[in-house]
Amino acid sequence: MNVLFVASEMEPFAKTGGLADVIGVLPKRLSDLGLDVRVVMPLYKEAERNLRRLGFKVQTIRNKEVMVPIDWISYKGKIKETKIDGITIYFLINEEFYDRDFIYGSPSGDFSDNDVRFGFLSLGALEIAKAMDFQPDIIHCNDWQTALVPISLKWKKHYNDEPFFKNTKVVYTIHNIAYQGLYQKELINKFGLPSYIFNMDGLEFYGKANLMKGGIISSDLVTTVSPRYAEEIKTPDYGYWLDGVLRSISNQGKLAGIMNGLDYDVWDPEKDNAICMKYSAENLDGKIMNKMKLRKHLGFKSKENKPLIGIVSRLADQKGIDLIVNFLDQILKLDVELVVLGTGDKNYENILTEDMNQYGDSFSAIIGYNDKKARAIYAGCDMFLMPSRFEPCGLGQLMALKYGTIPIVRGTGGLLDSIIDYNRNPERGNGFVFHEFNGEEMLKAIENAISVYNNPIDWTQLVRKAMAENFSWRKASEIYHNHYNRLLGH
Ligand code: ADP
Ligand code: GLC
């Protein structure tokens, strides 16, 4: 079976969040099942840097440039290819679009030509498949950036007439319904789509063109990254005005929630070369060393053995960062230490940085994106806080579990599918869960965690249980494989 993934991020080439983690591993696990899996992504400046840094062998595909017409201009894309663990990655090259310092936008906002940049990726991916003579049985698209793949296959004459894709089915995975790719209605003309699709049953959305909506309605199967989130997005509270569309495709049996896994080849304290000392559930000495080193690095000097809480997160409303900044004083009064690593919303970055002046003995904010520091936090903290407003899946809590850092989470989406509250269920509990999105509930959950922490025997047992949890990709990749088979009538 030939499967073509199209995505805007992939580990270890370019990453802003969990999407990159997923694309970095799911294709490999599907390839383990015997599928021929290839990935198309843009050659960003960051990807080029990482290819060089990591010593990948990269081949330029000569004489096979692709041409993509957008708004009457023909854009040219070159192709580079590399291999990683049995899968082929095609990098789409266009300096004007991708040779920039950021993937989606600069600190002052999203790039204004993202519709064209990612439209070029989507159509470029179809052209690459043809150029490389890789006839896909399945094209697996991810988020709005790739929605023009199913939209074009369904409605663009040039493609729905194309015999090459006649038997191709499209799976479209929603990683986050909050980002939809909303543009002026001229987008329809720009991409040579028929004007009749700009209506309520098509891409139209409150007077604008909505790429996420288009991706949902034109794909053969829509998946999202946890079973709980698949239910949530059908409700007005979580559906970001697409709940009606999602209910409708769900009624047609075209919506599935599949929990992401974690790549234990790269997220494992027994193998992690980036942390100061490796450790395992049997021997937790290394975890203590990691905590000492991290506290030293953060300048925390208290001699008491306070619980150290970590956050590694995009600083966005989704992540409940407002609960952290508004309740920081109360959190720290619980006699804990807190470290936040993140970038994003400038407002949060500024407040967190200023808070360090007042609470520097027990609070540290590291503004930036840094994989090594993230790992130091997963390894060195006692608890990991994710008070998300919504969370399609969340990988942070899965990483924390593996590193024996007990998650304290708000019960939503994938957080609710992966974390069981220890107080309610001491037998199976692997973390602490609060349900209402408010500071009081969050503080209560932190207090519950602290009271178990103060009993070292129970705590160590909990840490070992967390480390033994298994969210590997094996099961999820088989579920995707079954869906592919079903779509193809196998
Ligand atoms: P989302 O994709 O919504 O941001 P996830 O929990 O699924 O949330 O994935 C976040 C991923 O990004 C994890 O791999 C996490 O370690 C990583 N990450 C987030 N912020 C940072 C940061 N500032 N530095 C390093 N890694 C980060
Ligand atoms: C999105 C979601 C996150 C999920 C990730 C990977 O970024 O916000 O919850 O884990 O995609 O699917």
In CATH terms, what is the architecture of the largest domain? Answer: 3-Layer(aba) Sandwich
Ends apart, CA distance between termini: 11 Å
Bound molecules: adenosine-5'-diphosphate, alpha-D-glucopyranose
The stretches of 5 or more residues where confidence is low (pLDDT under 50) are none
User: What name does the CATH topology of the largest domain carry?
Assistant: Rossmann fold
Shape: globular
Tell me the name of the CATH homologous superfamily of the largest domain.
Glycogen Phosphorylase B
Beta-strand level of the residues, as a percent range? 15-25%
Report the C-alpha radius of gyration, rounded. 23 Å
Number of strands: 20
Percent helix, as a range, is 25-40%
Tally of helical runs: 19
Briefly, what CATH class of the largest domain?
A: Alpha Beta
Average of pLDDT? 97
- The number of distinct structural domains comes to 2
Q: The biggest beta sheet, please?
A: 9 strands, mixed
